[in-house]
Amino acid sequence: MQYWLVKSEPEAYSWARFVKEGRACWDGVRNYQARNNLQLMQPGDLVLFYHSVSEKAIVGIAKVAKAAYPDPSADDPKWMAVDLVPDRAFETPVTLDQIKKEPRLENIALLRQSRLSVMPLKTEEFDALLALGN
User: Assign residue 39 a region: left if phi > 0, alpha if psi is -120 to 50, beta otherwise?
Assistant: First the structure.
């Protein structure tokens, strides 16, 4: 089992819309490092859903439903997508300010590479974020 965090602007694609639709093709990623992370995702991996820009908070947990495949929104087959399904919402969203204040999260990719849209999480980072949100 691996753990991940994906970012989405809630005005573009929100957690509420994701839950309503029940499944999403996570496409449109055009950063090589994020693409490489998508390629490593496997069905059953857990993914934290982060509302970026306006909210800056983790709002829920998703699961990888389908491993990486060529992104249908791209003209070039080197770009990848995965399918995600919602698992559950956080009882309390975990804000970026909370993450910055938590010593166990000082090395999290969200703080070190703030523009990266798909990033891995260590087990201890995932567990710390879960504890903050539930």
Answer: alpha
Q: Tell me how many degrees the CA angle 73-76-77 measures, rounded to the nearest 5.
A: 90
Segments forming the whole domain that contains residue 89: 3-133
Instruction: Select from 10, 42, 8, 11 the least CA-distant residue to 118.
Output: 8
CATH number at residue 30: 3.10.590.10
Domain count across the chain: 1
Tell me the per-residue pLDDT of 87-107, one tens digit each, with 9 for 90 and over: 999 999 999 999 999 999 999
Nearest of 68, 79, 65, 60 to residue 17 by alpha carbon: 60
Distance CA 5, CA 117 (A): 8
pLDDT in tens, 43-88: 999 999 999 999 999 999 999 999 999 999 999 999 999 999 999 9
70 CB-near residues (< 8 Å, 6+ apart): 77, 79, 80, 81
DSSP classification of residue 73: T
Which of these, 20, 3, 1, 45, lies nearest to 130 by C-alpha position?
A: 3
